[in-house]
Structures are given as structure tokens and as C-alpha cells.
Amino acid sequence: MKELKPRYDLGGDEFIFVELAQEMSLEANFRGIAITQKLREKNIEGVVDICPSNASYMVRIDPEVIHPHRMIEELKAIDNSIEDLSDIQIESRAVDVPVLFEDPWTHEAVMRFRDRHQDPESTDLEYAARINGYDTKEDFIKAITDSPFIVSMVGFVPGLPFCFQVVPREQQIEVPKYVRPRTFTPERTFGFGGAFSVIYPVQGAGGYQMFGIAPAPVFSQDTRLPDFKESIVFPKQTDLFRYRAITREEYDSIREEVEAGTFQYKTCDISFKADEVIEDPKKFSEMVMRRLYND
Amino acid sequence: MIKVLEPGIETTVQDKGREGYYEIGMPPSGAMDRYSYLAGNLLVGNEENASSLEITYMGPKLQFEEDAVIAITGGEIPPKINDEPVPMWTTLTIKKGDILSFDFVKSGARVYLAIAGGIDVPVLQGSRSTYTLCQIGGFEGRALKAGDELKIGEMQETSVKEGTAIPDEFIPAYKKSHEIRVIIGLCSYRLTEESKQRFLDLEWKVTPEANRVGYRFKGERLNFVEREQPFGAGSNPSNVTDLGYPIGSIQVPDGIEPIALLNDAVTGGGYATIATVISTDLSHMAQIKTNETVKFKAVDLDEALEARKEVRRKLDKIRELTTGQK
Fold it and tell me: What DSSP line would sit under B37-83, residue for residue?
């Protein structure tokens, strides 16, 4: 596997921050998942929070129970115990995530904050399509919706999924964030920044390009919704989100289901080994699509 | 029952906070000045995690509909019962029908009202703390409003004698310029050596954007080491591949205005973090107001852990005092 050189550092006296790599890659993400999984299983006294993220992870501890330096030794030992990616087994689920692209609500927000954008003359979607070399926005939307994204991190606010597309590196979409962050982003906005797509769980500030809106929530306190009975957040790290472009009609009908408390995401459990994805992302993505929609 | 006649600027129900949910993006919330909050609970004989009111800048006006034992700790926002001044950091009794109100803030920014029994609100994910950004926890997920009625809970462990007072040596005093201790690290390699030094040398001014999520500071631009941005990070030199933000961590979006994240922090994002406020000084951060100044002092882990022990020793002393037991 690609050589990762983890860097261990302190975030004050309660946090250990471990940077596995400075750049985003599935290798770094899977390695973080594997390490934090093993750490969880070890049930070490004094560990308060275990937070895997994209190419790094963080552990919060009670330093009076476990000394930060001892914690770092534990983490190094776990890291050493993971030989290669074929060691890493991931229990995941594929999810069909409907998105209405170029919707009226995010469009209004797009227009309101043109002065904070790299290209005030185009919309976020037009701009992103162009700088990624697509002739039309339709081609660009097709690229986003053709292959699933893996939820590589959950955070910022409760339930916000950072999603990294499972495609070969040369096909990966990358966009800058807004020049200056917005003060407003509609709830459930489908956004893109760096190499990550996201759904904003709640209305608020934000700096990602806005492409559309999801009718279904990723954060909800409505326990009538089957997906939110156990937790107020839906996304889990390692989920495979397939963003599906929908019409306004389907958007409205899903919204009605959400309001009625009956909406449920279409999902399918998928178990895989990390190296399957790294070796042939295209084949893996096709398998996910097949399993989600045909099986 | 306690009736809210006037809510103050931002009065919320807080306890020690919500632990174990950082990985889903849920910050701990909880009392920002943990030291004052814990001292308050000790003064009324509550269990450690009993919920209190966190009062910001301007106090509320509360009518007690039953007799209660209370204590007010934190910065200096002088309390009054039926318009008569009463001491802070002291076990007080308040009678049915009495009105608790506050004078203008003299120093600090936040006080804690501990009530024997705590404030009875539903427990969400192990905590009664309010997280206003997502409108969850506390009293209906929000700051108090006029007309709200608070129920007193059953989180009292022992009774403390009226008039029990915490000696001055255990009461922090706040000026308008502050020194906050940090551990440099995380992604501090992104800053130039010169900017790293400037970060520690400058007196940073607290902007109006100073709340439970974080404090933003004005000073001068800090510069990042030039590089080709790694894949996934985004184009601004202050960007990194999105990562977790520790509570107390300091980031400098675009190099312009540092932000220190606090109890209601966003849990992660794509800005390089350069240092972290040590856990004991988070209590001090809670007492800093807009337009005051902060100087960050770099310390090592040993000093941070020693400061932590010192705070625990103080709280143990206060416990001896309130319970009369060693």
C-alpha cells in the first residue's frame, strides 16, 4: 500500500490529532477507519471521543485517566498492527440520495452571494462544470450522479456527510470554496468544496459551491421517520451515497412523505475489503449501483 | 417553578456537556466556564452534572414561585434579590415570590445560576445542555424567553448551609486584557515562522463575533508557507483537507482573523488549525468580552496538565468547605 507517514500531535491537553496524509485519498481514509475501529474495540479507559475524518483522525481523552503520550503510543501500536488494505474489512450500506439540481431555493442563495464568488457572472454549477472541463452542466451533473460517493467523514455540524467520489483520481471533481463564506445556506443544500460533496443538515453559514437541494433530511428530530428512530443523524462514515438527479415533481412528493413521517431512504448493505475499491474504483462503483438498484 | 420575567441577552440551560458524540458532528456544548459552573453546583449541594443557567452579558429577571437554595458564580454581574444586592460565590436562600435580577456586568462575561436540584429539562444524549445551532437540548433547544417557566429538578445530593462563601483566593478576577495559554501544533506547520511568532506576540482584539461557537479576533494578517495545495484541500493557502477541530482549537481562515472554537464548536472543516487553548483556560475564555484583548501564551503539555490539577485541587477545597468533609 501507498506509504503513509502518520503525524501525531496534541490538540491542547485533551485531544490527539493524527494526520495520516495531507492530501485526500481513499487509502488514507480507509486507514483512518481501520485504526479508529480497532481503537473502539480496545475500549481504553479515558477515551472520550473517537473522531475519524477524511485523511486524519482525532481522539479526545481525559488526560488524568490516560496520559496523552501513552495514548499516542497506543495509537502507534494500532497503526503498526495494520499490515495492508486487504486487512481492512468495511461494513457499509449503499444509499439512494435524491437531489434536485438547480432548484429555486439554492438558486436564490447563489444569486444573493455572487459578490463572494470567484465568478459572479455564472452560477455555481456553471462555474464548477467549466473549471472541471465539462462542456455542459448536464454532462457535469451526469458525472456527479453516475458513480457513488463514500462518506469519508461526518462533522462540521451534526450529520453533515463529507462525500468523496469512488472514481479514478483523474475523474475526480475538484472545486474551490467561496472566496468569502456565505452567511446563509438553505437547509439540505447539496454542495461541493475541495474534493467533497456535502448535504448541509441545517440552515447556516457555508462556503461550498451550491448545486441543488435534497428533499430528504440528513439530520432530523422527527422520530416518526424510520431512518431517525435510533439517531438524529442519518449518514455514517463508510456509507456509499449515490446522488440521483430528480425532477421537481419527485422532489415535492418526497417532501410530502418527509412531512408525513413516512419517508425512508432506499438502502442496501454492502460489505467489502478496502483494496477492492482502491484497485478498481470503476468496477466497485458499478457493483454498488447494481446492488442498490437491481438486486 | 421559576418564571422568566425578562430573559437577558442569552440565558441557556447548561451542564457539563454532551460527551461521546463528536464523531457525528455534535459538539459537547455545556457550561463554557466550567470552573464557575462546578463551584456553583458545590455551593448548592448539587451533583456535579446538575443543570444550571448560563447567563451572558446581561442577567435575566426571574420570579421564584417556590423557596429555593441558589448560588451565583462566574464573572461579575451583580445579583439582587427584590432589588437588594446579594453576594456572588455564596449559598443563598430565596423565598417564594422573590425576584432575582442582575445589575450591569462589571467584569467577565458570563455568570452561572445554580439552583439546588438543578433545572429539570429532558436529557438528550446524556446531557441537559442547550445546543442552539441545532435547536436541541436544554429548554426547548433555545435561549430563555420571557414567559418561560422552569421546573426545579432533583439533582441535589446534600444540603449546604446558607451563607457558605467561597474565599477570595478561589474566585478568579478578570481584567480587560487577558492571557490565554495554548499548545501550538495541529497544522501550525502551515504558518511561516514569522507569523507563528506574530501570533504569540500580538494583542488580539475580540470582535463582536464572540459566542458559544467561537471567538473571532482582529489583529494582523498571518501568512502561510507557500505550497502547491494537496489534492482535496481547496485552493486557499489556509485550506487543508477537511479534518476534525478540537475544542479550543484556533484557525485562521485566509490568514485574516483567527477563530478560537469553544463549547458549541463546529467539529471539523477545511481550515488549518494552528494551536489549541488548554482545557483549563477555556473557562477563562468564557469570561472575555468583545473589544477586550487576548495574548496567547505558548505552553507545553506538562504545564497544561499541571494547570488542570491545580483547578481540581481548588474544586476539592471548595467541596471540603461546602460539605464540611475531607
Answer: HHHHHHHTTB-TT--EEEEESS--EEEESS-EEEEEEEEE--EEETT
